[in-house]
Amino acid sequence: MNVQRLIRILIPIAVLAGIAWFATCRESGYGVKVIPYTDFMQAVSDGSVDYGSFQKDVFIGHMRSGDAFKVILPADNGYQRIEVERELREAHVRFEFQKPVISDTVSAMLISVLLPIGIVFLFWMFVMSQARKNQAIVGEAIAVTIPPGLKEFVAERVTAGGYETPAEYLRELVRADQKSSMPGDQPKE
Question: Looking at the whole model, is its pTM more than 0.70?
Answer without folding.
Answer: no
